Amino acid sequence: MQLDLHQLRELLTAIDQTNISELTLKSGDLELVVRKGTSLGDRLSLPSPKQSDAISELVSPTVASLETRGTSETAAMSPLSPPKASNKFEEILSPVVGTFYRASNPDEAPFVEVGDQITSGQTVCIIEAMKVMNEIEAEVSGQIMKILIKNGEPVEYNQPLMLVNPN
Questions:
Q1: Among residues 36, 20, 13, 18, which one has the least CA distance to residue 128?
Q2: Which residues pair with 136 in a beta bridge?
Q3: In three state form, how does the secondary structure of the chain look?
Q4: Potential cystine with 103: which of 50, 78, 108, 158 (Cβ 3.0-4.6 Å)?
């Protein structure tokens, strides 16, 4: 069974939007277990070298191979943390996992540019999740100081998309 990174993200997003609390996916030597509401550090165990190869083959050749560090049987992972914004700027965060788009289609101008004044409730971008285009609205009025994501890049839940200098 082949599963690329995009399909894996769609699967995780779909599971997140349901009452499913645990899912086990088995393919050959690989067993993927997804559990909601558990601490990663409590549950994560490092794969064997054989499982690492199976993960790389299952997900896609474009995804970097899984590296294990140290000799511990379990590891606590910290999520990727974006650079901290200045305290005076407000962040516009992604409410879903998906793909970031600055405009409603490639032929149109972006919703906002750096330096633009925005108002609360104004659409600033779109996040595509599972073939659904979600318009992201600003929750604060102010000036766009920085756009943190490039057009067409994948985004994670709660990832900062833009910095706004509030009015």
A1: 13
A2: 125
A3: CCCCHHHHHHHHHHHHCCCCCEEEEEECCEEEEEECCCCHHHHCECCCHHHHHHHHHHHCCCCCCCCCCCCCCECCCCCCCCCCCCCCCEEEECCCCEEEECCCCCCCCCCCCCCCEECCCCEEEEEEECCEEEEEECCCCEEEEEECCCCCCEECCCCEEEEEEEC
A4: 108
The C-alpha R_g of the chain, in whole angstroms, comes to 19
Mean pLDDT per segment of 10 residues, for the chain of length 167 residues? 70 79 77 68 50 50 35 37 62 95 93 95 95 93 95 94 94
Count how many residues are written for the chain.
167
**Structure token pair of residue 107:** 């032929």
Q: Round to whole Å and give the CA distance between 152 and 98.
A: 10
* Domains along the chain with CATH numbers: 5-59 (no CATH), 90-166 (2.40.50.100)
Distance CA 86, CA 155 (A): 21
